[in-house]
Design brief:
4-stranded mixed β-sheet, 10 strands, alpha+beta, 14 helices
Length: 522
């Protein structure tokens, strides 16, 4: 019995030891394999990181923050004689993950070929001149930097304005330019109900569209650029603005007619009387309605910070874009809006506002679109990021706008201009916009103004652009924030000059030293 018990115990002990050793061996093997796998993966990641850094010079972004990807190189500042181009990356997330804790900009030399003797004037810092094909060149950093300058249509030189409209009519009526232009119109109609009227693409897509139209115009006459129509300077008398004259885009449609001629434009070079028709053979239609947002409202919109980009873009798209579309009425309030020549001038103004907002700082320029690589709908493969910077567009194109808010850093005095009968109205408007760019938003909204047609009365426009209920609520809320707090009638004020009546407020009250006291609020 003792021997049997001893044998049984020994066998049990051996079995237990065998099981323990086997389990220990399996655990050790698992640990070794896991560590080997981690080492291999780390090695692969390290090699991939080094390869990416050496090939595209990108810095990996850690989960808590780090550097973004390098931006594209800007256009070279000179085509000959030596220039520079820049690219940058910013610190994303927590700055503790960035080595320098700030954004980094690097530059490299370019355009090193020697310039021909006598190729142009000497570059003096701040000097400007006309370049090839009527480009606007400014000397900066000892280099001439040129861009296509887009001007406000009512303040253009009469000869340049006539050249533009004559060239535009040629583009819409003669081959081969007409076919290219109509292909653009068809592309706009095809994408109308898509994302081109949503935040993800609205601003860059229409910047791309305007550049395509301008390229066709410059094939006919290389000195032509697209002008813009600043309707905010005519907000309360918008339909008496010079742009509706016969030598511009023509006037309102005649809605007393019936049938196919209802609301057809009867005056100007784009009227049915001049034989001009849309791509489908129908006449151009307009039906003016209401008033438009004024200069103080536009100035407040431009005061949004990069952190408030959503508010800026939503207000621009809703109050400043959708509303005026149906204020112009007719074709502009339909999917064929691009058929009306005023479409290009209106969207050039929207792009000019985005340009002014972007030029306020580097952070404004990089807001939202700078690092988005999604392709623009129906634009041939170009991305959102390609068209976020108007100074560095594909093909080496640089676009700039006439900007009264950037003509001087300090506010100008407009009181003397409002009293001077010899001062042109365009000079007073430019001075007023310059002053508004330096006045705090709270004081701008305190200026007694006439009411303009609010977005709540533009429900047709919101339906046309398929604005969702949530976004409509935001648009209406932001639009109400721009409305006048006090009206001129409640303050017992009159609008003595034609400019005041056109703008909807006393222009001289923009100056901080002269503000009326009003007891009532709207």
């Amino acid at each position: 019995y003792v021997r049997r018990r001893t044998v049984i115990r020994r066998r049990s002990y051996v079995r237990r030891r065998t099981i323990v050793r086997r389990r220990s061996y399996v655990r050790r093997r698992a640990v070794v394999r896991r560590r080997a796998t981690v080492r291999r993966r780390s090695s692969v990641r390290r090699r991939t990181y080094v390869r990416r850094r050496s090939s595209s010079r990108r810095r990996a972004v850690t989960p808590g923050g780090g550097y973004s990807m390098w931006s594209e190189w800007t256009a070279c500042s000179a085509t000959c004689g030596g220039g520079v181009q820049y690219r940058a990356r910013c610190c994303v997330g927590s700055s503790t993950y960035c080595a320098t804790r700030q954004d980094i900009t690097v530059r490299q030399a370019c355009g090193l070929a020697a310039c021909p003797t006598g190729s142009g004037p000497v570059c003096v810092e701040g000097a400007s001149r006309k370049g090839p094909c009527n480009t606007h060149c400014v000397c900066s950093g000892n280099q001439w930097r040129c861009c296509r300058l887009r001007q406000e249509v009512t303040s253009m030189n009469a000869g340049d304005r006539e050249t533009f409209f004559r060239t535009f009519r040629t583009m819409t009526t003669r081959e081969p330019h007409r076919s290219r232009y109509r292909a653009l119109l068809a592309r706009h109609r095809a994408q109308f109900d898509g994302t081109i009227h949503q935040q993800s693409e609205f601003l860059p897509w229409h910047r791309w569209y305007l550049l395509q139209v301008e390229d066709i115009l410059r094939q006919i006459n290389c000195s032509v650029t697209l002008p813009f129509f600043d309707w905010s300077a005519h907000s309360h008398r918008p339909w008496s603005a010079p742009v509706w004259l016969s030598n511009y885009v023509g006037g309102n449609g005649d809605c007393s007619l019936s049938g196919s001629r209802r609301c057809c434009v009867q005056t100007g070079r784009f009227s049915i009387n001049q034989g001009w028709r849309r791509s489908d053979g129908q006449c151009l239609r307009r039906e003016f309605d209401g008033t438009l947002p004024d200069m103080p409202a536009v100035a407040v919109v431009l005061r949004n910070t990069p952190a408030n980009f959503n508010r800026f873009e939503t207000t621009v798209r809703g109050t400043l874009h959708d509303g005026p579309h149906c204020a112009f009425g007719g074709d502009m309030c339909s999917e064929r809006s691009a058929e009306d020549p005023i479409f290009n001038l209106h969207h050039a103004f929207i792009d000019a506002l985005w340009y002014r907002w972007q030029t306020r700082s580097v952070q404004h320029l990089r807001a939202y679109f700078a690092y988005r690589t999604t392709p623009l709908s129906g634009a041939g493969g170009v991305t959102v990021r390609d068209y976020h910077n108007s100074g560095s567009l594909p093909g080496g194109v640089s676009i700039c706008y006439e900007d009264p808010t950037a003509r001087s850093r300090a506010p100008v005095t407009i009181h003397t201009l409002t009293q001077a009968s010899t001062a042109p109205s365009s000079t007073v408007v430019n001075a007023a916009q310059n002053v508004l760019s330096h006045v705090p938003a709270s004081k701008i909204l305190g200026i007694p103004r006439e009411k303009y047609t609010s977005l709540t009365r533009r429900s047709k426009a919101l339906r046309l652009f398929h604005v969702s209920s949530a976004e409509r609520a935001r648009m209406v809320r932001y639009d109400k924030l721009l409305a006048p707090k006090r009206t001129t009638s409640q303050c017992g004020l009159t609008l003595p000059t034609a400019l005041d009546r056109r703008a909807g407020f006393r222009v001289e009250y923009i100056a901080a030293a002269k503000r009326p006291k009003c007891r009532k609020r709207v």
